[in-house]
Write the structure tokens for this entry.
Amino acid sequence: MQGYQKISEALKKSEGERVKVRGWIYRTRSSGKLAFVTVRDESGIIQVIVEKGKLPDEDFNSARKALIESSVEVEGTVHEDERAPNGRELHATSFHVIHFAEDFPITKDQSMEFLLDNRHLWLRSRKLTTILKIRSTLTGAIHEFFRNHDFYEFHPPILQPSQCEGGATLFEVNYYGGKTYLSQSWQLYAEAAIFALERVYDVAPTFRAERSKTSRHLSEFWMAEMEAAWFDLKEVTEFAKKEVKFIIKKILEKHEEDLRFLGREPETLKEMLDKKWPTIKYREALEILKKDGMEVPFGKDLRTIEEQKLMEHFDTPVVVTHYPKEAMAFYKPRDPDHPDEALCFDMLAPEGYGEIVGGSQRSTDINELIESLQKQGEDVEKYEWYLDLRRYGSVPHSGYGLGVERSLAWICKLDNIKDAIPFPRTITRKYP
RNA sequence: GCCGGCGUAGCUCAGUCUGGUGGAGCACUCGGCUGUUAACCGAGCGGUCACCGGUUCAAAUCCGGUCGCCGGCGCCA
């Protein structure tokens, strides 16, 4: 007999075949001479029938005694039975407990706070296991997409001396007695890289010390960013749409059942792939909102409530471009044809999930950059290295960042972004 | 930073309005049961009522403060 099999494979065996599986006890019930123990592994769950007399008494007693989450090795024969959860079950001829678990603290009654306190154990739940599998497919798809398009993976520093996004707050780090900060974007460094590699991308952690307390914010999250020489706004927005569609396609290929389990109908996503995703200008968005009775003056960024209202008109992601220059970060260039607008964009997800991508063409006008930095109260001297990029063979270029957790939360239809990352970090949570 | 909600057994909650010996279900332990589906039946174990102070003969309950967590807004991926 060969070695251990995945439970998903054991479930495919035919009547009477012998298999060996190992995993963790998912549920257990017992009567006097019969115990039902469901065992889970990474791949699935199988019901094991442990019947007194059909295996050593020692094994039977272990099976009766072992609590939920005990680790076990089971050998037996596969039998079809309509009473079994998957229509098939395992009749044990041996049942070995590798470790008898203590009382597992997580039971059927659960609160958000308790599950977050016990995140290290809650990871084993079907919900989080499923999400983590899809997350792995998502980041894998990002790597595949960019490599397919001749991008190099480029690694920026995580410790950075200055900020890049205006307004956002930085985490300060004691750096040999001096100060440095955790990265809130790779962008400035990526801009340096395009003069060498032309097309670069990265999937990396990002840190924002914003005091946001919502189901859409994390203090530590992952961003998939790209930066490409010679791309203009039009090209980069279409490229972003292509990337997100590719991600969805890859997830649909592997995870239809997983998505259903999470409450997301795969059909909804499939339909989006066939549709054209609109690009509208910020000014057009204001017009739409005005018809809905929401008057937003030009110059203000769209707020959550306005984004949600806007997205009621669409059933696919939408790219919004040309936000007002004054509200934007210093590196976003003025549109030469409309000087009050910036050549930038956001991609908004439907169903209230909000912004999942943000990006722009980059300003190549060194004087405009200096002026914007000064206006934001920045110390221009700290950005000298960045300004050098505009002094030696400057070229038009663009880039964007995709929020991994926000995208995942939308694709999986999660209630809370915290479930899109294994160990969420928020303003009030850094344990476990 | 602003606004709101919550905090009682390991977990989920009732009890607080109207002060008077702290409860239920689940989990766990023991016993019973040869087909359970987050099993069932019986018994048992289990408490700093978040913390500090005040009012009162008496406080989980009323008053003041503190802390913790969750959510919404602003800001952002």
